[in-house]
Design goal:
Layout lengths: L12 H8 L3 E6 L6 E3 L2 E3 L8 E4 H9 L3 E4 L6 H13 L10 H11 L7 H24 L13 H32 L1
Antiparallel strand pairs: 1-4, 1-5, 2-3
């Protein structure tokens, strides 16, 4: 989406996916390929059936051409996500997840769902996890304090979602903190 800078408050989800596409994922190549150099680095050689780590953008490209299978990351499975969802709903702090879990999961579910075990269940768990974490974010923003803010274990997508509200809120809080002291100086 191309918007003028004045209307953009944050990075768009597709832009975050593009950034996440630099993450390395493991593949099982179906074709042989020599080591290939790109701007971001050199990858390969690819020799079936030996696993290889390449960037997500390259893996999705090969997958769409039916030249590899993508090995899902350790965290993209039903058991792990169920355990994280249970933590999210039972503990006040955010559970630890990979920083770009939402973007990577979306790309893999869109492009390589046939390489994932139970992709429909994964979609539901990711949706529930996202909703639980959003509710926690909203609760945390209700308790926003000008002096300190700590939100460990937030993902890039979650930070991006709360950034516009947070920036405006901190600006208002800063003004409120400064105004009473300025008002006191005028009355002396």
């Amino acid at each position: 989406m191309s918007l003028p800078q004045s209307l953009r408050t944050s990075v768009t989800p597709p832009e975050l996916e593009l950034i996440a596409s630099e993450q390395l994922v493991e593949i099982i190549p179906l074709v042989s390929m020599e080591r290939t150099a790109f701007i971001s680095g050199a990858y390969g050689p690819l020799r079936p059936p030996t696993k290889c780590k390449i960037p997500l953008w390259m893996a999705t490209n090969l997958k769409l051409k039916k030249k590899c299978h993508i090995v899902p990351p350790d965290w993209l499975n039903v058991e792990f996500l169920q355990e994280r969802l249970a933590r999210e709903t039972s503990q006040p702090e955010f559970s630890q997840l990979p920083f770009r879990f939402a973007e990577v999961a979306k790309v893999l579910l869109d492009v390589a769902s046939d390489d994932l075990q139970n992709p429909d269940k994964l979609r539901f768990l990711l949706k529930d996890l996202r909703e639980a974490r959003q509710a926690k974010s909203r609760d945390g923003l209700d308790k926003l304090d000008h002096s300190e803010l700590s939100l460990p274990n937030l993902s890039s997508m979650e930070i991006n979602e709360i950034r516009p509200f947070f920036v405006r809120s901190m600006g208002i809080l800063t003004q409120l903190v400064r105004e009473p002291s300025a008002g006191l100086a005028d009355t002396s």
